[in-house]
C-alpha cells in the first residue's frame, strides 16, 4: 500500500492512522445536517482540511449563517450554502463524498434505537436524493441508529438500481477514537501510536473493541478487559448523561468524522489505507452488515480484511452482538421494503 503521508502508523491489525496532507486533486464534500451539533464543528474541520476543494453545507435550517461564518476562514475549500429540499440537488451535485449527520440525537434514558422513528425517514430521503444525483459518491452515515440507517440507505440505493456495497459506510470511527484514548491513558502509551480495532456495529453490545489486538502490544488483566470493554460500549451514553439533555457527542464525533472523511479522500486519491467501518459484509454468518478493518481505495472498500484471531472473550462478544445486529438490520430493511 502506498501512503503519501509523512506520519503513518501501521499496526499488525493493518489499521493505519494517517495525518492530513496536501494533495493536488480536489474533491467535493457534501455535509448533510451541517447546522447541527456535529455538523458545525465537522464543517469547520472540513473547511480547514487542505484536501477539500469544495464544501457544500446542507441543512433544513440555519445553513446561511453557518456557511457565512465558515466562508470567512482563509483556507482553500469553497463553501456553499443549501437550505431545504429544493436546494438538496445543488448540494449533492458533483459530490465525491457525502457525510450525513442529519437527525436527532439522544437524550438521557434513550437508546439509539429510540431515534429510529425520526431518523430513518431523514436518512431515507437524503439517500434517495444521493442515489439519483451522485450514485457513485462515497456515503458516510453518522446518523443513529447506524446499525439500521446503513441498511436503510443500502435498500434505497438497491431500489434505484445503483447499490454498490463498497461505497456506503456507517461511521464507527468514534468507537475507535475512544478506544485509543482510553487504552493509551490506562496503559501510559503514546496515544498517537495506539491502534485499537473495533468491530461489530455502533450501539451497546454490538460495539466490540479488540483489546487482544492493541498496538503497540499491551497486557490487560481480565478485570481491565471487562471494564474497558464496558466503558467503550457505554461511552456514548457517558456523554449523553454528562450533557444532561443537551444532546450527545458532537466535538469528538466531528473529530472522528473528519478523520474518516480524510481516509475516504485518501482512498479516492489512490492512497490506500485501512479503517474500521460498518458496511455490507459476510465476515459473520447471518449478519449482513458488520464493521471490521477495511482497505479503502479509489473504489471505496477495496478489501474487507476481517478481524483476525479473537480471544475467547471477544468471540463471546461477537456472539452477543449477532442477535442485536440482526434485529437492527431487519428493522432498517423492513422500513424500506415494507
Ligand atoms: P443536532 O440535532 O445537533 O443536529 C442535527 C442537524 O440535522 C440539525 O441541524 C437539523 O436541522 C438537521 N436535520 C434534521 N433533519 C434534516 C434533514 N431532513 N435534512 C438535513 N438536515 C436535517 O444533532 P447532532 O448532535 O449533530 O447528532 C446528529 C446525529 O448523529 C444523531 O442521530 C446522533 O445520534 C448521531 N451521532 C452519531 C455518532 C456516531 O458515532 N455515528 C456520534 C454522535 C452522534
Ligand atoms: C455516540 O456514540 O456518542 C453516538 O452514537 C451518540 C449517542 O447517542 O451515544
TrEMBL record:
Subunit structure: Homodimer.
InterPro entries given in the database record: L-lactate/malate_DH (IPR001557), Lactate/malate_DH_C (IPR022383), Lactate/malate_DH_N (IPR001236), Lactate_DH/Glyco_Ohase_4_C (IPR015955), Malate_DH_AS (IPR001252), Malate_DH_type1 (IPR010097), NAD(P)-bd_dom_sf (IPR036291)
Pfam families (alphabetical): Ldh_1_C, Ldh_1_N
GO biological processes: malate metabolic process; tricarboxylic acid cycle
PANTHER family: MALATE AND LACTATE DEHYDROGENASE, MALATE DEHYDROGENASE, MITOCHONDRIAL
Stretches assigned to the Lactate/malate dehydrogenase N-terminal domain: 28-170
Lineage of the organism: Eukaryota, Metazoa, Ecdysozoa, Nematoda, Chromadorea
Molecular function in Gene Ontology: L-malate dehydrogenase (NAD+) activity
Binding residues for NAD(+): 33-39, 59, 119, 142-144, 253
Known EC number: 1.1.1.37
GO cellular component: mitochondrion
Residue span, Lactate/malate dehydrogenase C-terminal domain: 172-335
Active site per UniProt: 202
Domain of life: Eukaryota
Family: Belongs to the LDH/MDH superfamily. MDH type 1 family.
Protein name: Malate dehydrogenase
Class of enzymatic activity (EC top level): oxidoreductase
Amino acid at each position: 500500500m502506498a501512503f503519501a503521508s509523512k506520519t503513518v502508523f501501521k499496526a499488525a491489525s493493518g489499521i493505519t492512522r494517517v495525518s492530513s496532507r496536501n494533495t493536488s486533486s480536489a474533491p467535493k464534500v457534501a455535509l448533510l445536517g451541517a447546522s447541527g451539533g456535529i455538523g458545525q464543528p465537522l464543517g469547520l474541520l472540513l473547511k480547514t482540511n487542505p484536501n477539500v476543494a469544495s464544501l457544500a453545507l446542507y441543512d433544513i435550517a440555519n445553513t446561511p449563517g453557518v456557511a457565512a461564518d465558515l466562508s470567512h476562514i482563509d483556507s482553500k475549500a469553497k463553501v456553499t450554502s443549501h437550505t431545504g429540499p429544493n436546494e438538496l440537488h445543488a448540494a449533492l451535485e458533483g459530490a465525491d463524498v457525502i457525510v450525513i449527520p442529519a437527525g436527532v440525537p439522544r437524550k438521557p434514558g434513550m437508546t439509539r434505537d429510540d431515534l429510529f422513528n425520526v431518523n430513518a425517514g431523514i436518512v431515507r430521503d437524503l439517500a434517495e436524493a444521493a442515489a439519483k444525483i451522485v450514485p457513485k459518491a462515497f456515503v458516510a452515515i453518522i446518523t443513529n441508529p447506524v446499525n439500521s440507517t446503513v441498511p436503510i440507505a443500502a435498500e434505497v440505493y438497491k431500489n434505484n438500481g445503483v447499490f454498490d456495497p463498497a461505497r456506503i459506510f456507517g461511521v464507527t470511527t468514534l468507537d475507535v477514537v475512544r478506544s485509543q484514548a482510553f487504552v493509551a491513558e490506562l496503559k501510559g502509551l503514546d496515544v498517537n501510536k495506539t491502534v485499537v480495532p473495533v468491530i461489530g456495529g455502533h450501539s451497546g453490545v454490538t460495539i466490540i473493541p479488540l483489546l487482544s489486538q492493541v498496538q503497540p502490544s499491551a497486557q490487560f488483566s481480565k478485570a481491565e478487559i471487562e471494564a474497558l470493554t464496558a466503558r467503550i460500549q457505554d461511552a456514548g451514553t457517558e456523554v449523553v448523561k454528562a450533557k444532561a439533555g443537551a444532546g450527545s457527542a458532537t466535538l469528538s464525533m466531528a473529530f472522528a468524522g473528519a478523520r474518516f472523511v480524510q481516509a475516504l479522500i485518501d482512498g479516492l486519491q489512490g492512497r490506500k489505507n485501512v479503517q474500521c467501518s460498518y458496511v455490507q459484509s459476510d465476515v459473520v454468518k447471518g449478519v449482513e452488515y458488520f464493521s471490521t478493518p477495511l482497505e479503502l481505495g479509489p473504489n471505496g472498500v477495496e478489501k474487507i480484511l476481517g478481524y483476525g484471531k479473537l480471544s475467547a472473550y471477544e468471540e463471546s462478544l461477537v456472539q452477543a452482538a449477532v442477535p442485536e445486529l440482526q434485529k437492527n438490520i431487519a428493522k432498517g430493511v423492513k422500513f424500506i421494503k415494507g
